[in-house]
Amino acid sequence: MSTLPLHGLTVLEFSQYLSGPSAGLRLADLGAKVIKIERPGTGDACRQLSIGNQWVDESSLLFHTINRNKQSFAADLKDKKDLELVKNLIRISDVMTHNFRPGVMEKIGLDFESVKNLNPKMIYAEITGYGKEGPWKDKPGQDLLIQSLSGLTFTTGNGKTDPVPPGLAVADMICGAHLVQGILAALIRTQKTGEGAHIEVSLMESMLDFQFEFLTTYFASGCLPQRSLINNAHSLLGAPYGIYKTASGYIALAMMPIHKLSAAIDCESLNKYSEEETFSKRDEIKEIIAGFLLQNTTEHWLEKLIERDLWAMPVMNWNELSMHEAYRALDMEQVIYSNGAKPVTTTRCPIRMNEEKFKSDTGAPKLGQHNQQILEELKEIVH
After folding, report:
1. One of 57, 172, 266, 283 is an active-site residue; which one?
2. pTM, whole model, 2 decimals?
């Protein structure tokens, strides 16, 4: 593979758990040298946060999936000697990230202004839960809590069900992606002006931006979005948009004219509805569709719908997806190796450049694994 686009960039990651490290993961995928600054003895708290009770050596599988292709430097930031070593690293690095609560880095002496004095070109990128101002600024920035406060859990599920979280750490992952966007924009600016930058994102702001469709509609109408009572998939869209049970499984129906759907599946009961009624009477229409689709298999309905170029797909689980030729064609899997531990199969970077895929088989580091190497490199640069 040709030289990766961020080759030569050094990133110091003071982040833990998911949001900050997910940003570091993407930067590492693109070629940056990402050095995790970890607390001696325990390291990133994510090392002990298991998913599905899965472990690789002494760290969780989750830690390995989100910290692959990075280096680890163990340093006690409360120790003057270790702190001075970290400051020397800051002097020769390009980017640093952290996701501590407001005030933590100030106490250590690694806030933006202090770091700017050490390295005026530094891209200083931080994630908070709710920003640095307001009554929530010191609240825990945890994914489920952010989803709940932001209104996201009220957009999922059917109309009369309880609030439903999406089932993934979407706040962490999306916020991490926003941090990467800010960092890359700042790097371009630094190249043009020679100036560093202070990038700030928060989990709450990322979740509000994530819901821009709903919020813009709410601002315009003053009304809360109403979820469909059945087969809800998007509370701002009319019938047939949703997931429906069939005789053999489930089928997803996206936007399509109701009269075309009626003709494709031969459901005469839908003919009495106009296109204008697909939102105002969506529950009534969806109930007819739901009952009708139970009469035959997913495969049967897909054949009829695709024949008329209507947007429909089967609902798959991961077993079914991984066996499908279309999934295999994407080549999304890669195997990573970490310090003699068992190999881990995970996903690759989803970005391609000049038709090349970004893959690396380097697994997550052991705590402090690269201390000696980094100290030697630092000594050569300083002297």
Report:
1. 172
2. 0.92
